[in-house]
Amino acid sequence: MARGSVSQSVAARRRVLVVEDESDLARVVKRHVEDIGCEVRIAGTGEGALEAAATTEFDLILLDVMLPGIDGLEVCRRLRARQQYMPVLMLTARSSEIDKVLGLETGADDYLTKPFSIQELLARIKAIFRRMDMLAAPRATPEVSIEVAGCLRIDPATREVFMRGRPVTLTHKEFDLLRYFADNPGRVYTRAQLLDAVWGYSHEGYEHAVNCHINRLRAKIEPNPSQPQLLLTAWGVGYKFTTDSIGPG
After folding, report:
1. In the chain, which end has fewer C-beta atoms inside a 10 angstrom radius, N or C?
2. What is the pTM of this model?
3. Closest to 218 in 3D by CA, of 228, 208, 210, 206
4. Distance of alpha carbon 171 from its chain centroid, rounded?
Protein backbone atom coordinates (compact mmCIF):
# COMPACT_ATOMS: atom_id res chain seq x y z
CA MET A 1 0.00 0.00 0.00
CA ALA A 2 1.42 3.38 -0.96
CA ARG A 3 1.88 6.06 1.63
CA GLY A 4 -1.14 8.29 1.99
CA SER A 5 -3.53 5.62 0.70
CA VAL A 6 -4.70 4.34 4.08
CA SER A 7 -8.48 4.25 4.44
CA GLN A 8 -8.54 5.42 8.03
CA SER A 9 -9.97 8.93 8.32
CA VAL A 10 -7.86 11.74 9.74
CA ALA A 11 -10.28 12.11 12.67
CA ALA A 12 -9.83 8.46 13.62
CA ARG A 13 -6.05 8.33 13.20
CA ARG A 14 -4.11 7.21 16.23
CA ARG A 15 -1.57 9.65 17.62
CA VAL A 16 1.94 8.33 18.25
CA LEU A 17 4.86 10.15 19.84
CA VAL A 18 8.34 8.97 18.77
CA VAL A 19 10.94 9.95 21.38
CA GLU A 20 14.34 9.39 19.76
CA ASP A 21 17.44 11.58 19.62
CA GLU A 22 18.87 9.85 16.52
CA SER A 23 17.14 11.96 13.90
CA ASP A 24 17.62 9.52 11.01
CA LEU A 25 16.11 6.63 12.98
CA ALA A 26 13.29 8.86 14.20
CA ARG A 27 12.38 9.80 10.63
CA VAL A 28 12.45 6.17 9.47
CA VAL A 29 10.20 5.07 12.34
CA LYS A 30 7.88 8.02 11.71
CA ARG A 31 7.50 7.13 8.04
CA HIS A 32 6.64 3.49 8.69
CA VAL A 33 4.27 4.22 11.56
CA GLU A 34 2.48 6.73 9.36
CA ASP A 35 2.09 3.94 6.78
CA ILE A 36 -0.23 2.06 9.17
CA GLY A 37 -2.49 5.10 9.47
CA CYS A 38 -1.06 6.94 12.47
CA GLU A 39 -0.37 10.60 13.06
CA VAL A 40 3.23 10.84 14.31
CA ARG A 41 5.16 13.50 16.19
CA ILE A 42 8.85 13.39 17.07
CA ALA A 43 10.56 14.56 20.26
CA GLY A 44 14.35 14.47 20.45
CA THR A 45 14.70 14.80 24.22
CA GLY A 46 13.02 13.59 27.40
CA GLU A 47 12.01 17.13 28.23
CA GLY A 48 10.38 17.49 24.82
CA ALA A 49 8.52 14.23 25.31
CA LEU A 50 7.07 15.32 28.65
CA GLU A 51 6.02 18.67 27.19
CA ALA A 52 4.29 16.98 24.25
CA ALA A 53 2.51 14.48 26.51
CA ALA A 54 1.30 17.32 28.74
CA THR A 55 -0.61 18.93 25.89
CA THR A 56 -1.61 15.97 23.69
CA GLU A 57 -3.20 12.61 24.50
CA PHE A 58 -1.17 10.03 22.57
CA ASP A 59 -2.35 6.52 21.81
CA LEU A 60 1.22 5.30 22.10
CA ILE A 61 4.65 6.63 23.02
CA LEU A 62 7.71 5.00 21.42
CA LEU A 63 10.36 5.88 23.97
CA ASP A 64 14.12 5.50 23.55
CA VAL A 65 15.96 4.80 26.82
CA MET A 66 19.21 6.59 26.01
CA LEU A 67 18.24 10.24 25.70
CA PRO A 68 20.16 13.44 26.42
CA GLY A 69 19.11 15.09 29.67
CA ILE A 70 16.18 13.20 31.18
CA ASP A 71 16.54 9.59 30.09
CA GLY A 72 13.73 7.32 28.93
CA LEU A 73 13.38 5.50 32.25
CA GLU A 74 12.78 8.76 34.10
CA VAL A 75 10.38 9.95 31.37
CA CYS A 76 8.39 6.75 31.82
CA ARG A 77 8.32 7.17 35.62
CA ARG A 78 6.98 10.72 35.28
CA LEU A 79 4.38 9.67 32.73
CA ARG A 80 3.14 6.92 35.06
CA ALA A 81 2.85 9.43 37.91
CA ARG A 82 0.22 11.28 35.89
CA GLN A 83 -3.44 10.37 36.07
CA GLN A 84 -3.83 10.06 32.31
CA TYR A 85 -2.60 6.70 30.99
CA MET A 86 -0.67 6.48 27.72
CA PRO A 87 0.89 3.18 26.57
CA VAL A 88 4.69 3.16 26.34
CA LEU A 89 6.80 0.92 24.09
CA MET A 90 10.40 1.31 25.18
CA LEU A 91 13.18 1.19 22.59
CA THR A 92 16.59 0.36 24.01
CA ALA A 93 20.09 -0.42 22.82
CA ARG A 94 20.71 -2.07 26.17
CA SER A 95 20.38 -5.84 26.09
CA SER A 96 21.06 -6.96 29.66
CA GLU A 97 18.27 -8.52 31.71
CA ILE A 98 18.50 -5.91 34.47
CA ASP A 99 18.00 -3.04 32.02
CA LYS A 100 14.90 -4.68 30.58
CA VAL A 101 13.53 -5.28 34.07
CA LEU A 102 14.13 -1.64 34.95
CA GLY A 103 12.16 -0.58 31.89
CA LEU A 104 9.23 -2.79 32.84
CA GLU A 105 9.35 -1.72 36.48
CA THR A 106 9.03 1.95 35.52
CA GLY A 107 5.71 1.08 33.88
CA ALA A 108 6.55 0.43 30.23
CA ASP A 109 3.97 -1.76 28.48
CA ASP A 110 6.58 -3.44 26.32
CA TYR A 111 10.15 -3.03 25.12
CA LEU A 112 12.11 -3.70 21.96
CA THR A 113 15.89 -4.02 21.81
CA LYS A 114 17.85 -2.27 19.07
CA PRO A 115 18.56 -3.14 16.35
CA PHE A 116 15.00 -4.21 15.58
CA SER A 117 13.15 -4.92 12.37
CA ILE A 118 10.43 -2.53 11.24
CA GLN A 119 8.08 -5.52 10.87
CA GLU A 120 8.50 -6.47 14.52
CA LEU A 121 8.11 -2.86 15.65
CA LEU A 122 4.84 -2.52 13.73
CA ALA A 123 3.62 -5.87 15.10
CA ARG A 124 4.25 -4.67 18.66
CA ILE A 125 2.49 -1.39 17.97
CA LYS A 126 -0.57 -3.15 16.53
CA ALA A 127 -0.65 -5.54 19.51
CA ILE A 128 -0.74 -2.61 21.95
CA PHE A 129 -3.51 -0.94 19.95
CA ARG A 130 -5.55 -4.17 20.02
CA ARG A 131 -5.17 -4.45 23.78
CA MET A 132 -6.19 -0.84 24.33
CA ASP A 133 -9.23 -1.31 22.07
CA MET A 134 -10.29 -4.37 24.07
CA LEU A 135 -9.96 -2.48 27.34
CA ALA A 136 -11.99 0.42 25.97
CA ALA A 137 -14.75 -1.75 24.48
CA PRO A 138 -18.03 -1.65 26.44
CA ARG A 139 -18.98 -4.89 28.14
CA ALA A 140 -22.41 -6.51 27.94
CA THR A 141 -22.62 -6.84 31.73
CA PRO A 142 -21.04 -4.71 34.47
CA GLU A 143 -17.76 -6.09 35.77
CA VAL A 144 -17.86 -7.23 39.37
CA SER A 145 -15.08 -7.65 41.87
CA ILE A 146 -13.15 -10.91 41.77
CA GLU A 147 -12.47 -12.59 45.11
CA VAL A 148 -9.53 -15.00 45.19
CA ALA A 149 -8.37 -17.41 47.91
CA GLY A 150 -10.27 -15.60 50.63
CA CYS A 151 -7.77 -12.75 50.78
CA LEU A 152 -7.33 -11.09 47.38
CA ARG A 153 -9.87 -8.76 45.76
CA ILE A 154 -9.56 -7.48 42.21
CA ASP A 155 -11.80 -4.66 40.97
CA PRO A 156 -11.74 -4.74 37.14
CA ALA A 157 -13.75 -1.52 36.77
CA THR A 158 -11.30 0.62 38.75
CA ARG A 159 -8.24 -1.60 38.19
CA GLU A 160 -7.65 -1.72 41.94
CA VAL A 161 -6.29 -4.67 43.89
CA PHE A 162 -6.56 -5.31 47.63
CA MET A 163 -4.73 -7.93 49.67
CA ARG A 164 -6.48 -8.56 53.00
CA GLY A 165 -8.09 -5.15 52.64
CA ARG A 166 -4.83 -3.32 51.95
CA PRO A 167 -4.37 -1.68 48.52
CA VAL A 168 -1.71 -3.19 46.25
CA THR A 169 -0.07 -0.93 43.66
CA LEU A 170 0.40 -2.68 40.34
CA THR A 171 1.67 -1.49 36.99
CA HIS A 172 -0.69 -1.65 34.03
CA LYS A 173 0.79 -4.89 32.75
CA GLU A 174 1.00 -6.50 36.20
CA PHE A 175 -2.72 -5.88 36.61
CA ASP A 176 -3.50 -7.35 33.18
CA LEU A 177 -1.51 -10.48 34.02
CA LEU A 178 -3.12 -10.89 37.45
CA ARG A 179 -6.59 -10.36 35.98
CA TYR A 180 -5.96 -12.99 33.33
CA PHE A 181 -4.89 -15.54 35.92
CA ALA A 182 -7.84 -14.69 38.18
CA ASP A 183 -10.29 -15.12 35.29
CA ASN A 184 -8.85 -18.60 34.64
CA PRO A 185 -8.04 -20.11 38.07
CA GLY A 186 -6.41 -23.50 38.19
CA ARG A 187 -5.46 -23.52 34.51
CA VAL A 188 -1.78 -23.95 33.65
CA TYR A 189 -0.32 -21.55 31.07
CA THR A 190 3.03 -21.65 29.33
CA ARG A 191 5.05 -18.46 29.08
CA ALA A 192 4.34 -18.29 25.36
CA GLN A 193 0.59 -18.53 26.00
CA LEU A 194 0.77 -15.73 28.57
CA LEU A 195 2.77 -13.55 26.18
CA ASP A 196 0.16 -14.05 23.49
CA ALA A 197 -2.82 -13.46 25.80
CA VAL A 198 -1.53 -10.53 27.89
CA TRP A 199 1.10 -8.87 25.71
CA GLY A 200 -0.63 -9.61 22.41
CA TYR A 201 2.21 -11.50 20.75
CA SER A 202 4.29 -14.62 21.22
CA HIS A 203 7.91 -14.18 20.24
CA GLU A 204 10.73 -16.53 21.14
CA GLY A 205 13.33 -14.83 23.29
CA TYR A 206 10.92 -12.55 25.13
CA GLU A 207 9.46 -15.08 27.54
CA HIS A 208 11.65 -13.69 30.33
CA ALA A 209 9.30 -10.69 30.34
CA VAL A 210 6.71 -13.08 31.79
CA ASN A 211 9.18 -14.28 34.42
CA CYS A 212 9.90 -10.68 35.46
CA HIS A 213 6.22 -9.88 35.89
CA ILE A 214 5.53 -13.13 37.75
CA ASN A 215 8.31 -12.37 40.22
CA ARG A 216 7.09 -8.80 40.77
CA LEU A 217 3.50 -9.96 41.25
CA ARG A 218 4.61 -12.50 43.82
CA ALA A 219 6.55 -9.81 45.68
CA LYS A 220 3.37 -7.74 45.92
CA ILE A 221 0.61 -10.29 46.62
CA GLU A 222 2.28 -13.30 48.25
CA PRO A 223 2.70 -13.47 52.05
CA ASN A 224 6.08 -15.12 51.36
CA PRO A 225 7.22 -14.62 47.75
CA SER A 226 9.88 -17.32 48.08
CA GLN A 227 7.14 -19.83 48.92
CA PRO A 228 4.19 -18.70 46.76
CA GLN A 229 0.69 -19.85 47.64
CA LEU A 230 -1.32 -17.96 45.01
CA LEU A 231 0.73 -17.79 41.84
CA LEU A 232 2.24 -21.23 41.49
CA THR A 233 4.88 -22.70 39.20
CA ALA A 234 3.88 -25.76 37.20
CA TRP A 235 7.35 -27.23 36.81
CA GLY A 236 8.39 -27.84 33.25
CA VAL A 237 5.25 -26.14 31.91
CA GLY A 238 4.53 -22.63 33.20
CA TYR A 239 2.32 -21.05 35.84
CA LYS A 240 -1.16 -21.30 37.34
CA PHE A 241 -3.28 -19.38 39.82
CA THR A 242 -4.59 -21.23 42.85
CA THR A 243 -8.27 -21.65 43.71
CA ASP A 244 -7.56 -22.63 47.32
CA SER A 245 -7.80 -20.36 50.32
CA ILE A 246 -4.52 -19.47 52.01
CA GLY A 247 -3.74 -18.84 55.64
CA PRO A 248 -3.01 -15.50 57.29
CA GLY A 249 0.04 -13.65 56.05
Report:
1. N
2. 0.66
3. 228
4. 8
